[in-house]
Protein backbone atom coordinates (compact mmCIF):
# COMPACT_ATOMS: atom_id res chain seq x y z
CA UNK A 1 0.00 0.00 0.00
CA UNK A 2 1.11 3.49 -0.72
CA UNK A 3 2.34 5.45 2.23
CA UNK A 4 0.40 8.65 2.79
CA UNK A 5 2.88 11.42 2.32
CA UNK A 6 2.62 14.19 4.87
CA UNK A 7 2.63 16.75 2.17
CA UNK A 8 0.39 19.72 2.58
CA UNK A 9 0.05 23.17 1.23
CA UNK A 10 3.53 23.77 -0.09
CA UNK A 11 4.21 27.29 0.91
CA UNK A 12 6.46 28.42 -1.87
CA UNK A 13 7.60 31.51 -0.01
CA UNK A 14 8.97 29.71 3.04
CA UNK A 15 9.92 26.29 1.72
CA UNK A 16 13.33 25.98 0.06
CA UNK A 17 13.27 24.87 -3.55
CA UNK A 18 14.97 21.55 -2.95
CA UNK A 19 12.41 20.72 -0.29
CA UNK A 20 9.64 21.28 -2.80
CA UNK A 21 11.47 19.18 -5.36
CA UNK A 22 11.92 16.40 -2.82
CA UNK A 23 8.27 16.54 -1.87
CA UNK A 24 7.49 16.34 -5.56
CA UNK A 25 9.40 13.14 -6.04
CA UNK A 26 7.89 11.35 -3.08
CA UNK A 27 4.32 12.57 -3.46
CA UNK A 28 1.82 10.09 -4.85
CA UNK A 29 0.70 10.63 -8.42
CA UNK A 30 -2.80 11.31 -7.21
CA UNK A 31 -4.03 12.19 -3.76
CA UNK A 32 -7.60 12.80 -2.70
CA UNK A 33 -7.70 14.55 0.64
CA UNK A 34 -11.00 14.75 2.49
CA UNK A 35 -12.77 15.18 -0.81
CA UNK A 36 -16.54 15.56 -0.61
CA UNK A 37 -19.17 16.33 -3.21
CA UNK A 38 -22.65 17.71 -2.66
CA UNK A 39 -25.10 18.23 -5.48
CA UNK A 40 -27.67 20.98 -5.20
CA UNK A 41 -28.02 23.38 -2.33
CA UNK A 42 -30.15 23.98 0.75
CA UNK A 43 -32.98 21.55 1.40
CA UNK A 44 -32.52 19.70 -1.89
CA UNK A 45 -28.80 19.12 -1.37
CA UNK A 46 -27.67 15.53 -1.69
CA UNK A 47 -24.27 14.42 -0.62
CA UNK A 48 -22.81 12.17 -3.31
CA UNK A 49 -19.44 11.63 -1.72
CA UNK A 50 -18.55 12.09 1.92
CA UNK A 51 -15.03 12.96 2.98
CA UNK A 52 -12.80 10.57 1.12
CA UNK A 53 -9.06 10.31 1.37
CA UNK A 54 -7.11 8.14 -1.05
CA UNK A 55 -3.56 7.99 -2.33
CA UNK A 56 -2.67 6.45 -5.65
CA UNK A 57 1.01 6.07 -6.38
CA UNK A 58 2.50 6.08 -9.83
CA UNK A 59 2.18 2.79 -11.67
CA UNK A 60 -0.56 1.47 -9.41
CA UNK A 61 -3.79 -0.14 -10.56
CA UNK A 62 -6.69 0.76 -8.27
CA UNK A 63 -10.25 -0.49 -8.64
CA UNK A 64 -13.23 1.21 -7.00
CA UNK A 65 -16.15 -1.05 -6.17
CA UNK A 66 -19.32 -0.43 -4.23
CA UNK A 67 -23.10 -0.35 -4.43
CA UNK A 68 -24.61 1.69 -7.23
CA UNK A 69 -24.89 5.39 -6.62
CA UNK A 70 -22.09 5.35 -4.05
CA UNK A 71 -20.05 8.02 -5.79
CA UNK A 72 -17.46 5.84 -7.54
CA UNK A 73 -17.93 7.63 -10.82
CA UNK A 74 -17.96 10.96 -9.02
CA UNK A 75 -14.53 10.19 -7.60
CA UNK A 76 -13.33 9.20 -11.06
CA UNK A 77 -14.61 12.43 -12.56
CA UNK A 78 -12.80 14.38 -9.88
CA UNK A 79 -9.59 12.55 -10.76
CA UNK A 80 -10.11 13.56 -14.39
CA UNK A 81 -10.61 17.18 -13.35
CA UNK A 82 -14.05 17.00 -14.91
CA UNK A 83 -15.64 17.90 -11.60
CA UNK A 84 -14.39 20.05 -8.77
CA UNK A 85 -15.14 18.68 -5.29
CA UNK A 86 -17.35 20.75 -3.01
CA UNK A 87 -14.71 20.51 -0.32
CA UNK A 88 -11.32 18.91 0.11
CA UNK A 89 -8.26 18.85 -2.10
CA UNK A 90 -6.96 16.85 -5.01
CA UNK A 91 -3.22 16.77 -5.51
CA UNK A 92 -1.30 15.60 -8.53
CA UNK A 93 2.31 14.84 -7.60
CA UNK A 94 1.86 17.06 -4.58
CA UNK A 95 0.47 20.05 -6.40
CA UNK A 96 -3.15 21.00 -6.61
CA UNK A 97 -4.90 19.48 -9.61
CA UNK A 98 -5.01 21.85 -12.55
CA UNK A 99 -1.72 23.46 -11.55
CA UNK A 100 0.18 20.30 -12.35
CA UNK A 101 -0.36 18.88 -15.80
CA UNK A 102 -0.82 15.17 -15.97
CA UNK A 103 -1.48 13.40 -19.21
CA UNK A 104 -4.75 11.53 -18.93
CA UNK A 105 -6.79 9.07 -20.90
CA UNK A 106 -10.36 8.01 -20.29
CA UNK A 107 -12.72 5.29 -21.43
CA UNK A 108 -16.37 4.73 -20.66
CA UNK A 109 -18.66 1.78 -21.07
CA UNK A 110 -19.93 3.18 -24.36
CA UNK A 111 -17.12 3.14 -26.89
CA UNK A 112 -18.26 6.49 -28.34
CA UNK A 113 -16.16 6.11 -31.48
CA UNK A 114 -16.60 8.82 -34.11
CA UNK A 115 -18.66 7.09 -36.81
CA UNK A 116 -17.23 9.12 -39.67
CA UNK A 117 -13.66 8.03 -39.00
CA UNK A 118 -11.95 4.70 -39.53
CA UNK A 119 -10.77 2.83 -36.46
CA UNK A 120 -7.20 3.93 -37.13
CA UNK A 121 -8.20 7.59 -37.31
CA UNK A 122 -10.39 7.25 -34.25
CA UNK A 123 -7.51 5.89 -32.24
CA UNK A 124 -5.25 8.62 -33.60
CA UNK A 125 -7.51 11.41 -32.35
CA UNK A 126 -5.68 12.10 -29.04
CA UNK A 127 -2.41 12.56 -30.95
CA UNK A 128 -4.09 15.37 -32.82
CA UNK A 129 -5.02 17.12 -29.58
CA UNK A 130 -2.53 16.35 -26.82
CA UNK A 131 0.85 18.10 -26.77
CA UNK A 132 3.61 17.39 -27.67
CA UNK A 133 2.11 15.13 -30.37
CA UNK A 134 -0.23 17.89 -31.42
CA UNK A 135 2.49 20.05 -32.93
CA UNK A 136 3.92 17.19 -34.97
CA UNK A 137 0.59 15.77 -36.08
CA UNK A 138 0.55 17.12 -39.60
CA UNK A 139 4.00 15.83 -40.39
CA UNK A 140 3.75 12.45 -38.70
CA UNK A 141 0.17 11.31 -39.13
CA UNK A 142 1.03 9.23 -42.15
CA UNK A 143 4.35 8.04 -40.78
CA UNK A 144 5.46 7.63 -37.20
CA UNK A 145 2.04 8.19 -35.63
CA UNK A 146 0.40 5.79 -38.00
CA UNK A 147 2.95 3.11 -37.15
CA UNK A 148 2.43 3.79 -33.48
CA UNK A 149 -1.35 3.41 -33.76
CA UNK A 150 -0.94 0.27 -35.83
CA UNK A 151 1.40 -1.25 -33.26
CA UNK A 152 -1.18 -0.58 -30.57
CA UNK A 153 -4.01 -1.98 -32.69
CA UNK A 154 -1.85 -5.03 -33.28
CA UNK A 155 -1.36 -5.49 -29.54
CA UNK A 156 -5.13 -5.66 -28.99
CA UNK A 157 -5.75 -7.74 -32.12
CA UNK A 158 -7.42 -5.06 -34.21
CA UNK A 159 -4.84 -4.38 -36.88
CA UNK A 160 -6.90 -6.09 -39.58
CA UNK A 161 -9.75 -3.74 -38.78
CA UNK A 162 -7.79 -0.47 -38.91
CA UNK A 163 -9.49 0.64 -42.10
CA UNK A 164 -12.99 -0.37 -40.97
CA UNK A 165 -15.57 2.00 -39.58
CA UNK A 166 -16.79 1.63 -35.99
CA UNK A 167 -20.24 0.36 -36.93
CA UNK A 168 -18.65 -2.51 -38.81
CA UNK A 169 -17.16 -3.81 -35.55
CA UNK A 170 -18.72 -5.79 -32.73
CA UNK A 171 -19.17 -4.23 -29.30
CA UNK A 172 -16.11 -6.01 -27.94
CA UNK A 173 -13.93 -4.85 -30.80
CA UNK A 174 -15.18 -1.27 -30.45
CA UNK A 175 -14.24 -1.43 -26.79
CA UNK A 176 -10.73 -2.56 -27.71
CA UNK A 177 -10.50 0.46 -29.99
CA UNK A 178 -11.81 2.62 -27.16
CA UNK A 179 -9.01 1.36 -24.90
CA UNK A 180 -6.49 2.11 -27.62
CA UNK A 181 -7.80 5.63 -28.00
CA UNK A 182 -7.50 6.12 -24.25
CA UNK A 183 -3.81 5.16 -24.14
CA UNK A 184 -2.37 6.02 -27.54
CA UNK A 185 -0.93 9.29 -26.21
CA UNK A 186 0.90 7.45 -23.40
CA UNK A 187 -1.13 8.87 -20.53
CA UNK A 188 0.30 8.73 -17.02
CA UNK A 189 -3.18 8.28 -15.62
CA UNK A 190 -5.84 6.10 -17.20
CA UNK A 191 -9.42 6.51 -15.97
CA UNK A 192 -11.87 3.73 -16.71
CA UNK A 193 -15.57 3.90 -15.87
CA UNK A 194 -17.03 0.39 -16.08
CA UNK A 195 -15.21 -0.13 -19.36
CA UNK A 196 -16.45 -3.68 -19.91
CA UNK A 197 -19.89 -3.30 -18.36
CA UNK A 198 -21.84 -3.85 -21.56
CA UNK A 199 -19.95 -6.91 -22.79
CA UNK A 200 -20.69 -10.60 -22.50
CA UNK A 201 -18.67 -12.69 -20.05
CA UNK A 202 -16.26 -14.19 -22.56
CA UNK A 203 -15.47 -10.95 -24.35
CA UNK A 204 -15.04 -9.31 -20.99
CA UNK A 205 -12.51 -11.89 -19.82
CA UNK A 206 -10.60 -11.53 -23.08
CA UNK A 207 -10.42 -7.80 -22.56
CA UNK A 208 -9.23 -8.17 -18.96
CA UNK A 209 -6.15 -9.86 -20.36
CA UNK A 210 -5.78 -7.22 -23.05
CA UNK A 211 -5.94 -4.46 -20.45
CA UNK A 212 -3.55 -6.27 -18.13
CA UNK A 213 -0.96 -6.60 -20.86
CA UNK A 214 -1.42 -2.97 -21.93
CA UNK A 215 -0.87 -1.87 -18.33
CA UNK A 216 2.13 -4.14 -17.82
CA UNK A 217 3.88 -2.89 -20.92
CA UNK A 218 3.49 0.76 -19.94
CA UNK A 219 4.31 3.02 -17.03
CA UNK A 220 0.68 3.85 -16.51
CA UNK A 221 -1.44 4.40 -13.42
CA UNK A 222 -4.99 3.10 -13.67
CA UNK A 223 -8.06 4.09 -11.70
CA UNK A 224 -11.02 1.92 -12.63
CA UNK A 225 -14.64 1.94 -11.51
CA UNK A 226 -16.39 -1.40 -11.84
CA UNK A 227 -19.38 -3.39 -10.66
CA UNK A 228 -17.71 -6.67 -11.36
CA UNK A 229 -15.77 -7.96 -8.33
CA UNK A 230 -13.96 -10.64 -10.32
CA UNK A 231 -12.86 -7.97 -12.73
CA UNK A 232 -11.59 -5.80 -9.89
CA UNK A 233 -9.70 -8.67 -8.28
CA UNK A 234 -8.27 -9.88 -11.57
CA UNK A 235 -6.96 -6.53 -12.73
CA UNK A 236 -6.20 -4.36 -9.74
CA UNK A 237 -3.35 -4.05 -7.25
CA UNK A 238 -5.77 -2.56 -4.76
CA UNK A 239 -9.52 -2.82 -4.53
CA UNK A 240 -11.22 0.01 -2.67
CA UNK A 241 -14.66 -0.85 -1.34
CA UNK A 242 -16.97 2.12 -1.01
CA UNK A 243 -19.98 2.57 1.23
CA UNK A 244 -23.50 3.39 0.10
CA UNK A 245 -24.30 6.99 -0.74
CA UNK A 246 -22.84 9.27 0.40
CA UNK A 247 -19.84 7.15 -0.39
CA UNK A 248 -16.54 6.86 1.39
CA UNK A 249 -13.84 4.24 1.27
CA UNK A 250 -14.53 1.47 3.77
CA UNK A 251 -11.70 -0.81 2.93
CA UNK A 252 -8.56 -0.62 0.86
CA UNK A 253 -7.88 -4.22 0.00
CA UNK A 254 -4.48 -5.17 -1.48
CA UNK A 255 -4.52 -7.85 -4.17
CA UNK A 256 -1.25 -9.72 -4.15
CA UNK A 257 -1.59 -12.31 -6.91
CA UNK A 258 1.43 -12.62 -9.18
CA UNK A 259 1.36 -11.13 -12.65
CA UNK A 260 0.56 -11.80 -15.32
CA UNK A 261 -2.62 -13.23 -13.92
CA UNK A 262 -4.49 -15.79 -15.93
CA UNK A 263 -8.13 -16.71 -16.02
CA UNK A 264 -7.25 -19.98 -14.29
CA UNK A 265 -6.07 -17.90 -11.33
CA UNK A 266 -9.61 -16.68 -10.85
CA UNK A 267 -10.64 -20.18 -9.80
CA UNK A 268 -7.96 -20.62 -7.13
CA UNK A 269 -9.18 -20.71 -3.50
CA UNK A 270 -7.36 -17.49 -2.61
CA UNK A 271 -8.99 -15.60 -5.46
CA UNK A 272 -12.42 -16.98 -4.65
CA UNK A 273 -11.92 -16.10 -0.98
CA UNK A 274 -10.99 -12.51 -1.87
CA UNK A 275 -14.04 -12.29 -4.08
CA UNK A 276 -16.23 -13.64 -1.35
CA UNK A 277 -14.81 -11.14 1.10
CA UNK A 278 -15.44 -8.17 -1.21
CA UNK A 279 -18.90 -9.43 -1.91
CA UNK A 280 -19.74 -9.73 1.77
CA UNK A 281 -18.62 -6.19 2.42
CA UNK A 282 -20.83 -4.79 -0.31
CA UNK A 283 -23.82 -6.90 0.66
CA UNK A 284 -23.42 -5.63 4.20
CA UNK A 285 -23.22 -2.03 3.00
CA UNK A 286 -26.29 -2.45 0.86
CA UNK A 287 -28.42 -3.98 3.61
CA UNK A 288 -27.20 -1.21 5.93
CA UNK A 289 -28.47 1.28 3.43
CA UNK A 290 -31.86 -0.36 3.39
CA UNK A 291 -32.07 -0.34 7.20
CA UNK A 292 -31.50 3.36 7.41
CA UNK A 293 -34.21 4.07 4.87
CA UNK B 1 -28.76 0.66 -62.38
CA UNK B 2 -31.63 -1.62 -63.39
CA UNK B 3 -32.54 -2.06 -59.76
CA UNK B 4 -32.76 1.69 -59.21
CA UNK B 5 -34.89 2.06 -62.33
CA UNK B 6 -37.18 -0.70 -61.11
CA UNK B 7 -37.63 0.97 -57.72
CA UNK B 8 -38.23 4.38 -59.30
CA UNK B 9 -40.61 3.10 -61.98
CA UNK B 10 -43.84 3.56 -59.96
CA UNK B 11 -43.11 7.17 -59.00
CA UNK B 12 -42.02 8.06 -62.53
CA UNK B 13 -45.15 6.54 -64.02
CA UNK B 14 -47.27 8.37 -61.44
CA UNK B 15 -45.85 11.73 -62.53
CA UNK B 16 -46.20 10.99 -66.24
CA UNK B 17 -49.67 9.52 -65.64
CA UNK B 18 -50.83 12.69 -63.89
CA UNK B 19 -49.75 14.85 -66.83
CA UNK B 20 -51.46 12.51 -69.29
CA UNK B 21 -54.64 12.54 -67.20
CA UNK B 22 -54.52 16.34 -67.09
CA UNK B 23 -54.10 16.54 -70.86
CA UNK B 24 -56.88 14.03 -71.58
CA UNK B 25 -59.30 15.58 -69.08
CA UNK B 26 -58.81 19.05 -70.58
CA UNK B 27 -59.47 17.71 -74.06
CA UNK B 28 -62.41 15.59 -72.97
CA UNK B 29 -64.23 18.36 -71.09
CA UNK B 30 -62.92 21.02 -73.50
CA UNK B 31 -61.58 23.19 -70.70
CA UNK B 32 -60.67 26.63 -72.14
CA UNK B 33 -56.95 27.34 -71.94
CA UNK B 34 -57.42 30.62 -70.04
CA UNK B 35 -58.75 28.48 -67.14
CA UNK B 36 -56.44 25.50 -67.28
CA UNK B 37 -54.05 25.06 -70.21
CA UNK B 38 -53.01 21.58 -71.21
CA UNK B 39 -49.49 20.39 -70.40
CA UNK B 40 -48.65 20.27 -74.10
CA UNK B 41 -49.67 23.93 -74.43
CA UNK B 42 -47.52 24.85 -71.45
CA UNK B 43 -44.49 23.10 -72.86
CA UNK B 44 -45.12 24.68 -76.26
CA UNK B 45 -45.33 28.06 -74.55
CA UNK B 46 -41.98 27.50 -72.85
CA UNK B 47 -40.48 26.39 -76.14
CA UNK B 48 -41.66 29.34 -78.23
CA UNK B 49 -41.08 31.97 -75.52
CA UNK B 50 -37.76 30.59 -74.32
CA UNK B 51 -35.69 33.69 -75.22
CA UNK B 52 -38.13 35.89 -73.27
CA UNK B 53 -38.44 33.54 -70.31
CA UNK B 54 -34.75 32.81 -69.91
CA UNK B 55 -33.67 36.13 -68.31
CA UNK B 56 -36.46 35.73 -65.74
CA UNK B 57 -35.51 32.17 -64.91
CA UNK B 58 -31.88 33.16 -64.68
CA UNK B 59 -32.67 36.01 -62.30
CA UNK B 60 -34.80 33.82 -60.05
CA UNK B 61 -32.15 31.14 -59.92
CA UNK B 62 -29.47 33.71 -59.15
CA UNK B 63 -31.55 35.41 -56.43
CA UNK B 64 -32.38 32.09 -54.84
CA UNK B 65 -28.81 30.80 -54.86
CA UNK B 66 -27.35 34.02 -53.47
CA UNK B 67 -30.01 34.12 -50.73
CA UNK B 68 -29.43 30.47 -50.01
CA UNK B 69 -25.66 30.89 -49.80
CA UNK B 70 -25.97 33.81 -47.39
CA UNK B 71 -28.56 31.85 -45.41
CA UNK B 72 -26.24 28.84 -45.13
CA UNK B 73 -23.29 30.96 -43.98
CA UNK B 74 -25.37 32.84 -41.46
CA UNK B 75 -27.23 29.75 -40.34
CA UNK B 76 -24.10 27.71 -39.70
CA UNK B 77 -22.41 30.57 -37.84
CA UNK B 78 -25.38 31.24 -35.58
CA UNK B 79 -26.11 27.54 -35.18
CA UNK B 80 -22.55 26.80 -34.07
CA UNK B 81 -22.62 29.70 -31.63
CA UNK B 82 -25.92 28.68 -30.11
CA UNK B 83 -25.18 24.97 -30.11
CA UNK B 84 -21.80 25.16 -28.43
CA UNK B 85 -22.73 27.34 -25.48
CA UNK B 86 -25.40 26.57 -22.95
CA UNK B 87 -25.72 30.26 -22.16
CA UNK B 88 -26.11 31.30 -25.78
CA UNK B 89 -28.64 28.52 -26.29
CA UNK B 90 -30.77 29.53 -23.32
CA UNK B 91 -30.50 33.20 -24.20
CA UNK B 92 -31.19 33.12 -27.89
CA UNK B 93 -33.43 30.12 -28.44
CA UNK B 94 -36.73 31.69 -27.27
CA UNK B 95 -36.04 34.71 -29.45
CA UNK B 96 -35.33 32.50 -32.46
CA UNK B 97 -38.54 30.57 -31.97
CA UNK B 98 -40.39 33.86 -31.69
CA UNK B 99 -38.87 35.26 -34.87
CA UNK B 100 -39.32 32.07 -36.83
CA UNK B 101 -43.05 31.96 -36.03
CA UNK B 102 -43.54 35.30 -37.80
CA UNK B 103 -44.76 34.63 -41.35
CA UNK B 104 -41.59 35.78 -43.06
CA UNK B 105 -43.42 36.79 -46.20
CA UNK B 106 -44.84 39.67 -44.19
CA UNK B 107 -41.32 41.10 -44.13
CA UNK B 108 -41.33 41.73 -47.88
CA UNK B 109 -43.10 45.15 -47.69
CA UNK B 110 -40.61 46.24 -45.04
CA UNK B 111 -37.66 45.20 -47.19
CA UNK B 112 -39.18 47.12 -50.11
CA UNK B 113 -39.54 50.11 -47.84
CA UNK B 114 -35.90 49.90 -46.87
CA UNK B 115 -34.21 48.80 -50.07
CA UNK B 116 -36.63 49.70 -52.84
CA UNK B 117 -37.70 47.49 -55.74
CA UNK B 118 -35.25 45.06 -57.29
CA UNK B 119 -33.05 42.18 -56.38
CA UNK B 120 -32.21 43.09 -52.76
CA UNK B 121 -35.62 42.45 -51.17
CA UNK B 122 -35.84 39.14 -53.04
CA UNK B 123 -32.46 37.99 -51.77
CA UNK B 124 -33.24 39.08 -48.21
CA UNK B 125 -36.57 37.28 -48.24
CA UNK B 126 -34.85 34.13 -49.44
CA UNK B 127 -32.29 34.52 -46.63
CA UNK B 128 -34.73 34.95 -43.79
CA UNK B 129 -36.92 32.11 -45.00
CA UNK B 130 -34.12 29.58 -45.30
CA UNK B 131 -31.90 30.55 -42.39
CA UNK B 132 -33.98 29.23 -39.48
CA UNK B 133 -34.13 25.55 -40.30
CA UNK B 134 -30.34 25.65 -40.74
CA UNK B 135 -29.75 27.39 -37.41
CA UNK B 136 -32.01 25.04 -35.50
CA UNK B 137 -30.59 21.89 -37.06
CA UNK B 138 -26.93 22.83 -36.73
CA UNK B 139 -27.44 23.94 -33.13
CA UNK B 140 -29.19 20.68 -32.36
CA UNK B 141 -26.43 18.59 -33.93
CA UNK B 142 -23.78 20.41 -31.95
CA UNK B 143 -25.64 20.48 -28.65
CA UNK B 144 -26.30 16.74 -28.64
CA UNK B 145 -22.72 15.44 -28.54
CA UNK B 146 -22.58 12.42 -26.23
CA UNK B 147 -21.50 13.50 -22.74
CA UNK B 148 -19.05 10.58 -22.56
CA UNK B 149 -17.29 11.81 -25.66
CA UNK B 150 -17.15 15.30 -24.25
CA UNK B 151 -15.56 13.93 -21.07
CA UNK B 152 -12.99 12.00 -23.09
CA UNK B 153 -12.12 15.18 -24.98
CA UNK B 154 -11.94 17.20 -21.78
CA UNK B 155 -9.54 14.78 -20.14
CA UNK B 156 -7.36 15.25 -23.23
CA UNK B 157 -7.47 18.97 -22.40
CA UNK B 158 -9.02 19.64 -25.78
CA UNK B 159 -9.98 23.26 -26.39
CA UNK B 160 -13.47 24.26 -27.41
CA UNK B 161 -12.21 24.71 -30.91
CA UNK B 162 -10.72 21.18 -30.88
CA UNK B 163 -14.04 19.79 -29.76
CA UNK B 164 -15.95 21.78 -32.34
CA UNK B 165 -13.66 20.92 -35.22
CA UNK B 166 -13.08 17.25 -34.48
CA UNK B 167 -16.37 16.18 -32.97
CA UNK B 168 -19.30 18.60 -32.95
CA UNK B 169 -19.12 19.92 -36.50
CA UNK B 170 -18.70 16.59 -38.30
CA UNK B 171 -21.35 15.17 -36.02
CA UNK B 172 -23.86 17.84 -36.96
CA UNK B 173 -23.41 17.26 -40.70
CA UNK B 174 -26.40 14.93 -41.10
CA UNK B 175 -28.61 17.53 -39.42
CA UNK B 176 -27.04 20.24 -41.57
CA UNK B 177 -27.64 18.43 -44.85
CA UNK B 178 -31.19 17.56 -43.88
CA UNK B 179 -31.82 21.26 -43.29
CA UNK B 180 -30.22 22.22 -46.63
CA UNK B 181 -32.87 20.33 -48.54
CA UNK B 182 -35.59 22.17 -46.68
CA UNK B 183 -33.75 25.48 -46.94
CA UNK B 184 -33.24 25.45 -50.72
CA UNK B 185 -36.97 24.97 -51.24
CA UNK B 186 -37.76 27.78 -48.81
CA UNK B 187 -35.25 30.06 -50.53
CA UNK B 188 -37.21 29.58 -53.77
CA UNK B 189 -40.44 30.46 -52.02
CA UNK B 190 -38.86 33.60 -50.63
CA UNK B 191 -37.35 34.89 -53.84
CA UNK B 192 -40.43 34.18 -55.97
CA UNK B 193 -42.84 35.80 -53.52
CA UNK B 194 -40.64 38.87 -53.26
CA UNK B 195 -40.40 39.03 -57.05
CA UNK B 196 -44.16 39.03 -57.47
CA UNK B 197 -44.50 42.22 -55.45
CA UNK B 198 -41.20 44.00 -55.66
CA UNK B 199 -39.23 43.29 -58.77
CA UNK B 200 -39.16 43.96 -62.48
CA UNK B 201 -37.54 40.66 -63.30
CA UNK B 202 -37.74 37.04 -62.25
CA UNK B 203 -40.21 34.23 -62.70
CA UNK B 204 -42.48 35.66 -60.00
CA UNK B 205 -42.63 38.98 -61.81
CA UNK B 206 -43.17 37.27 -65.14
CA UNK B 207 -46.12 35.34 -63.73
CA UNK B 208 -47.69 38.51 -62.35
CA UNK B 209 -47.44 40.22 -65.72
CA UNK B 210 -48.76 37.12 -67.52
CA UNK B 211 -51.71 36.99 -65.13
CA UNK B 212 -52.66 40.60 -65.72
CA UNK B 213 -52.63 40.03 -69.49
CA UNK B 214 -54.53 36.72 -69.13
CA UNK B 215 -51.72 34.73 -70.68
CA UNK B 216 -52.58 31.68 -68.60
CA UNK B 217 -50.27 29.22 -70.41
CA UNK B 218 -47.34 31.51 -69.55
CA UNK B 219 -48.39 31.58 -65.88
CA UNK B 220 -48.33 27.82 -65.83
CA UNK B 221 -45.05 27.83 -67.73
CA UNK B 222 -43.56 29.85 -64.87
CA UNK B 223 -44.90 27.34 -62.38
CA UNK B 224 -43.40 24.44 -64.29
CA UNK B 225 -40.02 26.14 -64.54
CA UNK B 226 -40.02 26.78 -60.80
CA UNK B 227 -40.89 23.15 -60.14
CA UNK B 228 -38.08 21.92 -62.37
CA UNK B 229 -35.51 24.24 -60.79
CA UNK B 230 -36.64 23.35 -57.27
CA UNK B 231 -36.55 19.63 -57.87
CA UNK B 232 -33.16 19.85 -59.59
CA UNK B 233 -31.56 21.74 -56.69
CA UNK B 234 -33.16 19.42 -54.16
CA UNK B 235 -31.77 16.45 -56.06
CA UNK B 236 -28.30 17.99 -56.18
CA UNK B 237 -28.26 18.46 -52.40
CA UNK B 238 -29.64 14.98 -51.82
CA UNK B 239 -26.77 13.66 -53.94
CA UNK B 240 -24.16 15.72 -52.12
CA UNK B 241 -25.61 14.54 -48.83
CA UNK B 242 -25.41 10.90 -49.82
CA UNK B 243 -21.80 11.38 -50.93
CA UNK B 244 -20.67 13.28 -47.86
CA UNK B 245 -22.48 11.21 -45.29
CA UNK B 246 -21.85 7.62 -46.18
CA UNK B 247 -21.11 7.02 -42.52
CA UNK B 248 -24.53 8.20 -41.41
CA UNK B 249 -26.48 6.05 -43.84
CA UNK B 250 -24.36 2.93 -43.13
CA UNK B 251 -25.87 -0.39 -44.09
CA UNK B 252 -29.29 0.98 -45.03
CA UNK B 253 -28.20 1.85 -48.55
CA UNK B 254 -25.42 -0.65 -48.85
CA UNK B 255 -22.87 2.14 -48.51
CA UNK B 256 -20.26 -0.02 -46.83
CA UNK B 257 -16.76 1.40 -46.97
What are its keywords?
heterodimer, A: 293 residues, alpha/beta, 4-stranded antiparallel sheet, disordered N terminus, B: 257 residues, mainly alpha, globular, disordered C terminus
Overall mean pLDDT score of chain B?
Answer: 88
Strand portion of chain B: under 5%
Strand tally of chain A is: 10
Q: State which percent range the strand residues of chain A make up.
A: 15-25%
Spatial gap, N to C terminus of chain B? 20 Å
The percent of residues in helical segments of chain B reads over 70%
Whole-number radius of gyration of chain B? 22 Å
Quick one: how many beta strands of chain B? 0
Unreliable spans of chain B: 252-257
* SSE run of chain B: HHHHHHHHHH
Q: H/E element string of chain A?
A: HEEEHEEEHHHHEHEHEEH
Q: Give the largest interface.
A: A-B, 30 and 23 residues
Largest sheet of chain A: 6 strands, mixed
- Number of helical segments with 4 or more residues of chain A: 9
Structure explained in plain terms:
The complex is a heterodimer of chains A (293) and B (257). Chain A has helices at residues 17-26, 72-79, 119-129, 133-140, 144-155, 171-183, 201-216, 229-235, 269-292, and strands at residues 30-39, 46-56, 61-65, 87-92, 95-96, 104-107, 189-193, 221-225, 238-242, 249-254. Chain A is of the alpha/beta class. In chain A, the strands form two sheets. Chain A has a six-stranded mixed beta sheet, with helices on both faces. Chain A has a four-stranded antiparallel beta sheet with strand order 2-1-4-5, with helices on one face. Chain A is globular and about 55 Å long. The two termini of chain A are 35 Å apart. With 257 residues, chain B is an all-alpha fold. Chain B contains ten helices and no strands. The interface between A and B is medium-sized, with 30 and 23 residues.
Amino acid sequence: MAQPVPLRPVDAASAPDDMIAAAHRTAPLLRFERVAVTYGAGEAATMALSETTLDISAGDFVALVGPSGCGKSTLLRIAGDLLRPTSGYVFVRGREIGAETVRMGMAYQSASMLPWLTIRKNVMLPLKIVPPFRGEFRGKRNGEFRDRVDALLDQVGLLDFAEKYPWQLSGGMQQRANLCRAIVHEPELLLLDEPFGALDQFTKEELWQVLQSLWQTRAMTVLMVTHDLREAAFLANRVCVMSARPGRILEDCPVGFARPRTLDDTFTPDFVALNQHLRDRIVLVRSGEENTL
Amino acid sequence: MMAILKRRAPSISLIIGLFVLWEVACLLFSVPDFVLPRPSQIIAEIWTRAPAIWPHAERTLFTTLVGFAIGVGLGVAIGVLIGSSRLAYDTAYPLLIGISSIPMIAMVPIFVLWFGYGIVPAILTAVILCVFPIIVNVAMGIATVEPELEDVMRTLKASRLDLLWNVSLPRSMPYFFASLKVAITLAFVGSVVAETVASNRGIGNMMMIATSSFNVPLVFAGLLILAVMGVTLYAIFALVEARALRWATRGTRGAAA
